[in-house]
Specification:
This is Quinol monooxygenase. This protein has 106 residues and is of the alpha+beta class. The protein has 3 helices and 4 strands.
Length: 106
């Protein structure tokens, strides 16, 4: 099982944030039906004033769980992911992707 952490840097402004969130809202139910997908969740900073929280302005984090690299690669080639990328290309500045596995097996 792989855990994917994608940090999506968006252009500043409510319009860009809302466009990206809307695009994810459209594709999430479709992605969750893909073979090998065990989770697909959009995360944003929780608004609090604690001093130990690191906030990343104009950033959205996507947390995904995939059975294998084969499943992840197939997902990236789907028509809905191609359409998503086209839809948000004016809103997204860049994406950093981490492909993780469990470090401890307890």
């Amino acid at each position: 099982m792989l855990t994917i952490i994608a940090e999506i840097q968006i252009r500043s402004g409510v319009k860009h944030y809302e466009n990206v969130c809307h695009a994810f809202k459209k594709i999430t139910p479709i992605v969750l039906l893909e073979k090998g997908c065990y989770g697909y969740e959009l995360l944003t900073d929780y608004l609090t004033e604690v001093d130990f929280q690191t906030k990343v302005p104009d950033s959205i984090t996507l947390l995904e769980h995939w059975e294998s690299m084969q499943h992840l690669n197939a997902h990236l080639k789907t028509a809905h992911m191609q359409a998503y990328q086209e839809q948000v290309k004016g809103d997204v500045i860049g994406v950093k992707i981490r492909i993780m596995q469990k470090g401890l097996h307890i």
